[in-house]
Amino acid sequence: MSAIDQMRAAASAAGANALRPNASLANAAPGFGDALKAMLGDAQQLQDQSADAIGAFLRGEPVEIHEVMAAVEEAGIALDFLIQLRNSLTEAYRSVVGMQT
Q1: CB-based contacts of 49, cutoff 8 Å, min separation 6
Q2: Exposed, middle or buried, 13 (CB in 10 Å: 0-12/13-18/19+)?
Q3: Which H or E run contains 60?
Q4: Which residues 6+ apart lie within 8 Å of 64 measured at CB?
Q5: Domain segments of the chain: what residues?
Q6: How far apart are CA 6 and CA 89, in angstroms?
Q7: Which of 7, 27, 8 has the alpha carbon at shortest distance from 17?
Q8: What is the pLDDT tens value at each position of the chain, 101 positions in all?
Q9: 36, 19 in Cβ contact below 8 A?
Q10: What is the rounded distance in angstroms from the CA atom of residue 92 to the CA atom of residue 84?
């Protein structure tokens, strides 16, 4: 299950648990924080794989250039996604704070 699917499942479970006030925390599905940690871990893993592919290519190991480029691009996309997520969360937080004042 991808990190985005985990976030969707966590959001839907959080909504279902909000309707049941007596739901125990032990039975709760993974939360948003867990999904976010998984996404950060996935992005870090992609960054590490990208660095490994670049290093292997520079050392002259038998690595195809298109594989290196694909790894770098995939890591870049994951990082861009996390930056956009951070920006959206920051904007949502500021909106909520603005509503309270």
Answers
A1: 71, 75
A2: middle
A3: none
A4: none
A5: 31-100
A6: 17
A7: 27
A8: 565 565 556 656 555 444 444 555 556 677 888 999 999 999 999 999 999 999 999 999 999 999 999 999 999 999 999 999 999 999 999 999 999 87
A9: no
A10: 12
